[in-house]
Amino acid sequence: MSELATLARPYAAAVFKRAKETNATKEWSQSLSFMSAVLENEDIAVVVDNPKVNKQKLSELMLDICQEQLTAENSNFLKLLVHNNRLVLLPQIAKLYESYKAEDEGYVEVEVVSAYTLSKEAKQSFSVTLEKTLGKKIHMNVSVDKTLIGGVLVRAGDRVIDGTIKGRLQHMHKALQ
């Protein structure tokens, strides 16, 4: 996973820089998200992963699927990724792009994984606490994972705050060994 991030980082940085230059950060965000969603389709993933597929044909296929959602620059970027055999990096590029965009706009994307569903009041209170802790406005995405037993796991960029019972038990287990 970290290897993909390393390979994707220069592409994401270049795209973000270009998006800022052209005042098109929102458009690039939507286009990258759409292209990533296309790649998540199982039928498309099989074609992309097949080394026997001609780059030109793959490029044409992707452009045909995405044509209504892409600008000329988006299309050129897609062709570049196909040409460099980096199309599989697109979801990671989109994720990194969003983190650059969030940093630039003064907020941070926060993923909160909870053992139980959080009430609206709990989400609001937790959001306020996280904003104070991180020193930035946040966009919080909450999901539920019953295997955590209790507590919450917070991921904000490179920062991870593990307040789960499962995490504490694993920490104690390592300490006792």
Give structural notes.
With 177 residues, this protein is of the alpha+beta class. It has two domains: 2-102, Peroxidase, domain 1 (Orthogonal Bundle); 106-176. It contains eight helices and four strands; from the N terminus they run H-H-H-H-H-H-E-H-E-E-E-H. It has helices at 2-21, 25-40, 42-49, 55-66, 72-83, 90-105, 120-134, 165-176, and strands at residues 107-114, 137-144, 151-156, 159-164. It has a four-stranded mixed sheet with strand order 2-1-3-4, sandwiched between helices. A hairpin with a 2-residue loop joins strand 3 (151-156) and strand 4. Helix 1 (2-21) packs antiparallel against helix 2.
Task: State the gist of this model.
This protein is 63% helix and 16% strand. The chain has a four-stranded mixed β-sheet with strand order 2-1-3-4, with helices on both faces.
